[in-house]
Each structure stands twice: as structure tokens, then as C-alpha cells.
Amino acid sequence: MTLDSKIPSGPLAEKWTKHRAELKLVNAANKRKYHVIVVGTGLAGASAAASLGELGYNVTAFCYQDSARRAHSIAAQGGINAAKNYQNDGDSVYRLFYDTIKGGDYRAREGNVYRLAELSNNIIDQSVALGVPFAREYGGYLDNRSFGGAQVSRTFYARGQTGQQLLLGAYSALSHQVGLGQVQMNSRHEMVELVVINGRARGIIARDMVTGELKRFIADAVLLCTGGYGNVYYLSTNAKGCNTTAIWRAHKKGALFANPCYVQIHPTCIPVSGDHQSKLTLMSESLRNDGRVWVPKKAGDNRPAGDIPEEERDYFLERKYPSFGNLVPRDVASRNSKMVCDEGRGVGSSRQAVYLDFRDSINRLGKDKIEERYGNLFQMYEQITAENPYSVPMRIYPAIHYTMGGLWVDYNLMSTIPGLFVLGEANFSDHGANRLGASALMQGLADGYFVIPYTLGGYLASGGIDKTTTEHEAFVEAENSVKSLVDKLLNIKGKESVDYYHKKLGKIMWNKVGMARNENGLKEAIQEIRAVRDEFWQNVKVLGSADELNQSLEKAGRVADFMELAELMTVDALHRKESCGGHFREEYQTEEGEALRDDENYAYVAAWEFAGVGKEPVMHKENLMYENIQLSKRSYK
Amino acid sequence: MNLTLHIWRQKDARTKGKFVIYKVENVHEEMSFLEMLDILNEQLIAKNEDPVAFDHDCREGICGCCSLYINGRAHGPKRGITVCQLHMRHFKDGDSIWIEPWRARPFPVLKDLIVDRAPLDRIMQAGGYISARIGSAQDANTILIDHDTAESSMDAAACIGCGACVASCKNASAMLFVAAKVSHLGQLPQGKLEREKRVLAMIAQMDKEGFGGCTNTKACEAECPKEIKITHIARLNREFLRASVV
């Protein structure tokens, strides 16, 4: 298989315009003859379903929650980037493109990233038109804040609820189309299988989560907008229901999975408090605008933060990275926090935390200003920890947050299965080995509002889609395979719960395929993952039946997929003998402990083909071509 | 701490439900309320009993999934938070806790503590949007919005659609939910063009779904996890009146 990224030729800044001009079109009156399935209703899915419905396509959308508005995009706090240069501080499309490529440690495609930067401005315009109440200055103009990995202020925000407001904007556009009958919305439905007919994606099997009924849905194209797979670690900032099932089952049907080992670990999360912990809560990166990260200079210093004098504090990010200071990218901040904790300088009872201190900002700006900027975050922190961050510094520690890897897609967002498109976090395309803050919202909406409406038309207009029905044997087979999987899970009747195995898997992944990885650990992890997977299939206990609302059964199906994905992530991490972005191999680091890339041998996308459970997957390479940017050591010093 | 839980169990929408008593032991004060229920469910699974079904997802107070009525209050005893943000340090050893689903005729129970809130989506589909064709927007800074209007609109936009307002209202009114959307969009210049059509359509759908009217008891405001004020209901009433006469 040769991977063709289909990046248009020509100058970087003209690629997207040229491509749009060359894409085939579906005539306005013919759009109603096409059916499109959209799975997931986060920023990518809601914006895609709304845009396609508005164009006249018949759209059927799915989400596992009770309402489309609840998708986990809603939890993004800090903001969304755009190259508006409203601040007159030197921003441009090119600079946003450059920062994003550099932030991704030179492991993303130039063409895709440039398009993303180009579309960023349209997203702000569209969102405002839909009523997103972004923060305003007193003159009525839009306000901005700064985020990691950038030296300009280009982040638009709506208090600490930017993701929520952007999603509600897309959800309102989606609701409009549902009301008009252009989109059929199926909430509490989970996609459990992809249906491929004559090599093309033609439908899905979805489980009605209230009645347990398996339903067949047919379409001319299928869009997966189902988010990332961070929950493979059990503890993450993802919502409890976030899962890999849609993309993993598509992978098993032939879609290549790219760069699965690229996982983002977010530096500012509330530390774990005990074994009961069910998820981790993020404290927005925007806090690093005004909070200073530090630990005591001395290991084992037990004094309360307030008793540690200035000269005995180590503001380690400011010390090591004077030009970016506390606003270094996430991977750099996380790794450094881990390093100081490994040196025994961590704080709090677990010693697995560093301080994020607002004392100086409160003194400089006043408590009111800090409250206006971060009030809801401070409140959330206090609810969870019972500590008041206005008077004592926050304790934070890195946590799994986002997955840059995902299904391989070309420039049209189409996977290796024709007719199967993948948008947002579910694909691998734009963030390389590390995503910059405030860029996930940008990508989800760019894909849904402004890319897929063009590229989907190009696919449909090219023809070759046969007439078929849900009676086709591929539908029957797909439904039967789901049925037997469900029966199998219900009939193991073992001794341990699904959560027990999920936690066990999560621990292996966090310890050996987490923030720092090495060859031995990864090799051990593969054996351990296989062992826990075997045990799961022999000893898991799933109560209840298939034909009812059964949350244990839902979880069991998802964890079964995580068990397989975990091995692929580990294989990918083992093969990539370099450090880049979120993938840090201890064997490959500079003397100062920075990631050491190997551009000569690893400047490619690793796209894996499924060969069977427990079998060595087959790797396909897409070499990354840099025509505009000089690859260099990523420095934030 | 050790607790006695009285939990509403109901097989499905057609079957009658009842309270069932459970003991849960070794609860730590750092646990969230939902983590306490996780522990109960693990105990139930170990005894081959059906775990308690409840809606939850983000567990950080923003998705609006969780929807428990605890000791007679939507989202429990603390103000301004959802159940997932409620921590066990607010309870003490030996407490008895009653846990129920949202109770309102338009929200039928699907199982145990899970209800169907689709009527709220249908209200949004009737008019909770601005018709701005994707791709047609001009530069965002051509619409100036003064700081205070943007903030006031954002206050209303903070609604997470959890339905606590409906559950805590003796009339099962969805007025605070509708008011939040009407107030969010109606205050913004870009939302003013459709303001009459929006408020009439949303109110009509609200009535059709069987939600009651507002009698100003302020229970919704007291229980709203995002502390949305009933002044937005006053604005809704003005918008409705205005739309009915123009």
C-alpha cells in the first residue's frame, strides 16, 4: 500500500485555494440524493453535521450521550487560536503555521497545518456570527490571551468555558438543521461496527443504548468525529465515556492507524488523591499566563509553601527557558515537572506535584482581576481540593489529555478506506508529535465547518458508489459479529469487573508508555498488556443482558478495544527510536534532558495496518516533506 | 466513613420503581459523590447484583450529564455545583442519603437514576439558534459588543442544560432553561434579528412538551449549578410580550 497524502502542489499559501478550485462539485439539487453518517457530535461532528445539512445533504448523526451538546469538546477551558493579529503584535497566518509545526516537533504535514492556520480566522468569524460570547474589551472589540508555545497573543476565549461556548455554537447550528429535518439526530446510540461494501465505507451498526437493539444505517459516506483515545490510561482528563471503539473497529476493517504513540500529557492537572480516583481534572493552560510554576530548591522540604523564602524556590521553567518562561509548550512543561518530582522536590503529601503560584499576579493585578480571568477555575480547584488558591498555591501534576495519533487521513480527511472520513482528534493530521494549547478547538471546527463540506463533495461527485441496501450481506455479517462479541462478553461470567481490568491496563500504560518510555519498559509492557487482555477475556464479569440499558456492557466493549489499541501504541513507541514532542524515549535525550529527534531516520508518519489481535501490525510510511520550513532543534530557551 | 444510601431503582420506563437501601463502607472524604457511587457499584457487581445506572460523563461540572436529586435537592446540598463536583467531605460518618432521579413529567425515567431529557433538545431545535449560514460571516470585529453586554450574555450562555431547574421546580417549568438561551442570544446584536421568532417558537415547544409555567418561587435559581439568575426569566417574559405585540 502506498500512502498518498494528496497534498496539492504549488506554493504553500495557495494549496488550499487551488485544491478547492479543482475539487469536483455536487450540484445543489443532487445533494439531497446523498446520505452521510456523522458519528460523534463534538466540535468536529456537530460542525460537520450542521454544515452538510445546511448544504442539503441528508445527514444522520450519532452520539453516545443523551444530547449532542454534551460531547467532551465542552470541557476545553482556555481558548481557541486564530491568526487575526488583532493585538498588532506580529501575528500572521504564516506565524501560526510555523508555531504549530514547531510545537508539533516537526512531525506534522506542512500543507495541512498551513490550511488550519488559514482557516483559523474564519472560525472566529463564524462562531461570533452564531452567537458565541467571546470576551470583549471595553471598546467592544474581541479580547485575546496568551497560550503556550507562542510569543503573540492570539487566543480567543469565553471565560474558562471556551470549548463549551464553541460547542454550543455548533450545537445550535446542528439543532437548527435537526429542526428543519435535514439532520436525523440519534442520541444514546453507539457505533459498534463499520460496514464496508466493495471496498467503500457504506454504513454502520449502532447500538441503541436504551433498548440494546442493534440497528443498521446506510450512507454514501461515513464521517468519524469520535475524539481521542486518552482513556486507554484509565485516568485522564477525558470524559468517562470517551472511547476508541469507532476508530478502532474501523481500523480493524482496514483503516490505517497513524502515530498511535503520540499522546499529550497536560502539565496542569489536579494531582491524583487516591485509588478511588475516577478521572483527572485539568486546570487550564491559560493559568500559566499569570501563575508561576515552582518547587523548593531542596529535596524533601516539608515546609508549607508560604514559609519557603523566595531564594529557596526554584522557578524551574523560568530558569531553564527564559524566553518562553512558564508558557513553554505542554510536553516541555510536563517533562520538567516530572523531572523535579523525580529529584524528590515534588510537593504535597504524594510528592507528585509542583506549585502553580498566583501570589505575584495577585499582588500586581489585584485579586479582582485574577478572579475575572480565572474565577471558575479557582472555584473548581477549591471544590476538589478544599484549598483556596487565592491564598495558597495550586498543586498540579501532568495528566493524559489528548492524543495526537489517530486514523490516517489524506489532505481530504479521507482514511485508507474510501468513503470513510475522519475529523478532529480522531484523526492524526495536524498536530504532529505535540499539540499546542488552544489548537484542538481550532482543528475540530476547521475540519467540520470548512474542510469537509468541500472534500466530501469531491468524493461523492467522483462517482463509483453502487446502489445497495441494509440487506446486503456485509450489513448482516457486521451485525452478527457485534452480536457474537456482546454474547461473548456476557457469557464469560468471570470474577472481576470491567473497571478492575481497565485500571490494570491504565497502570501499565501510565508507568511504561507514559511520560517517559524506554526499550525495556516497552517490551515488558507488550507482555503485560497481552496478559491482562487474556485475563480480561477469561475472567471479566458483565452482569445484565444485551437488550436493556446496560452500562457495564457498554464499558466492557470499550475496554476490550482499549486492550488491543494499547498494544499498538506500545509497538509504535518501541519502533520510534527517537524522542519527539509527547513521545519521550529516555535513551534519546540531550545532555540537558531535552527531546532528541532523529530527522534522518524518523521524519515520517508511521501508519499501521491491522494484522489480527496479538499479531505484529504492518507499518506503512508516509515521509514528511518540508519545503518551506527548515527542520531545527526545537528550542524555547 | 460509612453511609446508608436509599437509592431509587427502576428497571425501565414501564416498570414501577422503588427505594432500595444499601450500605457503603470506607468512603473517603476526598472522593467525589460519583466516585462513592462507583465504589457502591463495584460492591454490587462483586455480589452479582445489578449496578445502579446513572448519567455522568465529564466529571468536571460542564457537560450537564449528571442529574441526581440528593436529599431532596438537585445536585445535592452545595450551591453552584453539579453532582460530579460534590465531594464526600460535605457528608459525615453514619449519614443516610436519599438519591433520586430528576422528577418531572416531561423527563421519564429510563432506568434507575437516568431520565430522558430529549425535550430540552427539541426546544433548542425549535428556535435556540442564530441562522448564520456557515461560510457567510464577516470579520468578527465588525460586530462590536460592549464588554458588559458580552459578560451578561455569557452569564446566560453558561447554562449546561442539565435540567436541575426543571427538577427543582414544583411546576416542572423549563423557564430558566429557555430564558438562558433567549437571554444569551437576544442580548447580542447578531441575535436580535430573530428575537421575536425565537422566543415564540421556544415557548411554544416548551408548552408542547408539557413543562409548567413560572410562579417565581426561585427554586431554579437556588439549584442551578451555574447560578443563572431568574432576572433572565424576567427578560424572557419581556421578550415574549414584546414578540406577541409587535
Summarize the model shown:
By secondary structure, chain A is of the alpha+beta class.
Structure write-up:
Chain A has helices spanning 15-22, 43-55, 93-103, 110-129, 162-180, 245-252, 316-320, 330-342, 359-365, 367-385, 440-461, 473-492, 498-512, 519-539, 551-575, 599-602, and strands at residues 35-39, 58-62, 80-81, 155-156, 183-186, 189-197, 200-208, 214-218, 221-224, 257-258, 263-269, 292-296, 313-314, 354-357, 394-403, 406-407, 420-422, 604-609, 618-623. Helix content of chain A is 36%, strand content 14%. Chain A has three domains: 26-262 and 402-461, FAD/NAD(P)-binding domain, CATH 3.50.50.60; 265-400, Succinate dehydrogenase/fumarate reductase flavoprotein, catalytic domain (Flavocytochrome C3, Chain A, domain 1), CATH 3.90.700.10; 473-597, Fumarate reductase/succinate dehydrogenase flavoprotein-like, C-terminal domain (Methane Monooxygenase Hydroxylase, Chain G, domain 1). Chain A is of the alpha+beta class and 637 residues long. A five-stranded parallel beta sheet of chain A has the order 5-2-1-9-17. Chain A starts with 14 loop residues before the first helix and ends in a 14-residue tail after the last strand. In chain A, helix 3 packs across helix 4 (110-129) and helix 4 (110-129) crosses helix 11. Chain B is α+β, with helices and mostly antiparallel strands and 246 residues long. Chain B folds into two domains: 3-111, Roll (Ubiquitin-like (UB roll)); 118-245, Fumarate Reductase Iron-sulfur Protein, Chain B, domain 2, CATH 1.10.1060.10. Helix content of chain B is 35%, strand content 11%. In chain B, a hairpin with an 8-residue loop joins strand 1 (3-9) and strand 2 (18-24). In chain B, helix 2 packs antiparallel against helix 6 (195-208). At the A-B interface, helix 2, helix 4, helix 5, helix 10 and helix 11 of A face helix 1, helix 2 and helix 3 of B.
